[in-house]
Write a structure and sequence with these properties.
The chain is mainly β. The chain has 2 helices and 8 strands; from the N terminus they run βαβββββαββ. A 5-stranded antiparallel beta sheet has the order 1-8-7-5-6, covered by helices on one side. The chain is globular.
C-alpha cells in the first residue's frame, strides 16, 4: 500500500512575510523568532525550525470541505523555505518525536477513523487506516495542541 505525504505550498504564505507586524496581526498572524527546537514545526518544509529562525504563526483553513468537519487552525511557516516534495512512502523526520492524531476521511470529508499514536509509528498507522477502502485521505495533527501538520493521500 503506497501513500504520499503533502506539505503546504510556500506561495500561499510568502506574502505574509512581506507584511509588517501590525498588518500581520490584522489577519490573525504573528511573527516569531524560534527559541526552542523542536517546537516550531513548519508545514511547508515539514521540518522543525531552527533556533533564531523567523516564522509566522498564521490561521490556515486546512480542511476545506462541505462536511461538518471543515477546519481552520494555527500553523507555523518558516521564512524563505521551499515546499517539501516527499517520495512515495517517505515520512518526514519532524513527525517522529511527536504524539500525533491521525484522522481518516472519506470522499465527502466525513471522519471515519481517528487514532492517536507516537510519531515513530506513522507508517504503520497510515497503512492501518488505509486498510479501510472508504478512506480517501488522512490528516495528521499534533495531538496535544491539535495543530494540523500534513495530509496523506493514497498513490
Amino acid at each position: 500500500m503506497n501513500f504520499q505525504i503533502s506539505a503546504l505550498d510556500y506561495e500561499i504564505f510568502d506574502s505574509f512575510f512581506k507584511l509588517n507586524d501590525t498588518e500581520l496581526e490584522k489577519v490573525g498572524g504573528k511573527r516569531m523568532i524560534v527559541d526552542e527546537n523542536p517546537g516550531f514545526p513548519c508545514r511547508v518544509s515539514l521540518e522543525d525550525a531552527e533556533i533564531g529562525e523567523e516564522v509566522i504563526l498564521i490561521p490556515f483553513e486546512f480542511h476545506k470541505t462541505k462536511s461538518p468537519y471543515q477546519a481552520k487552525g494555527p500553523i507555523f511557516v518558516r521564512k524563505n523555505v521551499k515546499t517539501k516534495k516527499l517520495d512515495i512512502n517517505e515520512i518526514p523526520e519532524m513527525l517522529n518525536h511527536r504524539l500525533l492524531s491521525f484522522r481518516g476521511y472519506d470522499k465527502s470529508g466525513i471522519m471515519k477513523s481517528a487514532i492517536t499514536e507516537k510519531g515513530d509509528k506513522t507508517k504503520e498507522i497510515i497503512e492501518k487506516i488505509f486498510e479501510n477502502q472508504g478512506i480517501e485521505y488522512i490528516q495528521i495533527h499534533n495531538s496535544s495542541p491539535g495543530c494540523y501538520n500534513c495530509q496523506v493521500n493514497r498513490t
